[in-house]
Design goal:
heterodimer; A: about 400 residues; alpha/beta; Rossmann fold; 2 domains; 7-stranded mixed β-sheet; 6-stranded mixed β-sheet; 13 helices; 15 strands; about 40% helix; globular; B: about 180 residues; Pyruvate-ferredoxin Oxidoreductase, domain 3; 6 strands
Chain lengths: ~400, ~180
Amino acid sequence: MKKLIEGSMAVAEAIKVCRPHVISAYPITPQTHVVENLSQFVADGELKSEFVNVESEFGAASVVLGSSATGARAFSCTTSQGLLLMLEVLYNIAGLRLPVVMVVANRAVSAPINIWCDHQDAVTVRDAGWIQLWAEDNQEAYDMCLQAYRIGETPEVSLPVMVNFDGFILTHAFEPVDVIEQKDADQFLPPYKPAQYLTTKNPLTFGLLVDPDYYAETRYRLQVAMEDSKKIIEDVADEFKSKFGRYSGGLVEKYRLDDADTAVISMGSVSGTIKEVVDSLRDEGKKIGLLRIRVLRPFPKEAIFAALKDVKNIIIMEKNISLGLEGMLATEIKACFYAKEKQPKVSGYIVGLGGRDIPQDSIRNTILKAEKELAQAEFVDLKHQLIGGVL
Amino acid sequence: MLKEIRLHGRGGQGVVTAAELLAVAAFEDGKYAQAFPAFGSERMGAPVQSFVRIADHKIRARNQIDKPDYLIVQDSTLIGAVDVLYGLKPDGMVLVDTEKKPAELKLDTSAKVLTIPATKMALEILGKAIQNTTLMGAFAGATGLISVEAIKRSVKKRFPGELGERNAKVVQKAYDMMKGGENG
């Protein structure tokens, strides 16, 4: 059934039909509406779940870690500083192979404090061992929540999954979302049955000290699970489509790339805006398309190379920067072409930091400019009058 | 068909709620709709913007609306203080809450200018100076983009009981005034 609802409500409704046993989160803008709605569902008896209030995001991550280790399906949600505060626990959740699902309402990081959207938060934690899914719109964010539990709880994966959706731009946007009935969700997502879990009936210990004789193998197994999850991510999306009629998956989305000379690359909600610009440039005869990264970890290098192998120009527009180098995607996309015969020109642009709006005219001008230059970490729409002075 | 609406007002005037309810009403009419605020750290009285897109197809664009077809100005004191007209399409329309006639506003635009004393009407019918629902009714009357029935339903759903009924009444009154063409 289609409803016109706020993005945060869509995600809360998706998590409701996933029936998590435990929810723990600490409120932080712009994630707040997601957990407010979930806590209301629990208080109203619509969702049988234990909602654990905590003193911080570190506590929230620790609660979902502990509850997942006992075999519970666990959920958390955060953003920005909250995600950074969780970092130590994020590595532990992945290392313990616990299929926690967490939604991140992507936001810039301090200092200076900024509550608006960019992708620095989740990009910064990309090495923690979590699968990262990135939504373009609220339907996709909704669908990804159901898929996230299926992917993470698949025994050969057994990894936590992060669903990223843009703070404010999606969390606070009202748009139609097709929601799934509980009985249909239950068919798609059966109860979580872990092979091992903490119980007094069969005492085990998880994550104990391992010496140099063992540690590398645990990291190797994580790496293999990550690589293997690529196929599972695609299989789960196919099954979702056969059940619900929507293809809301894949490692990358290819938009008008078939005969393209130029490809723009992006993640998240700005991809929708870029598609509008691609359409208008196509109308003018330019052979241009968009490649959207839906899954950042595991990094779909094979799918990216296959989609872009005949492209001459790559233009990356990303909402993060690895300070001292360039945007994270720029580095990783270039790596996809290492030791390949044909090397496209790869230009990297930083857009939309701290919620700066990205007008269609800016996207268009950047694309036209990129035809004539090789850009590295070039900031789009920078206000030069603000950076003339010395700090 | 894609129509873009930008709403200007001040914090506390329900600018964000108006965008949401316009989208809900358009969706009830069978259209695709998107509403979002220009997210600031808004305080009561600070200038606020919100945005609505209405289409007969899926809406993908997420940028703030910089070339609107329609403008709704909930507070005429913003004119001059904020460039409310920026990017307004020359064949577009601007609807302002004021007791003045359109020509008296001296707006520098070739777009159609309409006015309605929405705050005054809201004070009379709702007993509160919250003019957003009145302007929604006027917008429906002026553009025909959204049905007045859908707007009344969305308002009543958002404000249950007596408050919803009174809001629906002011929506209908504003709609009828615009339909009567006495404000252009």
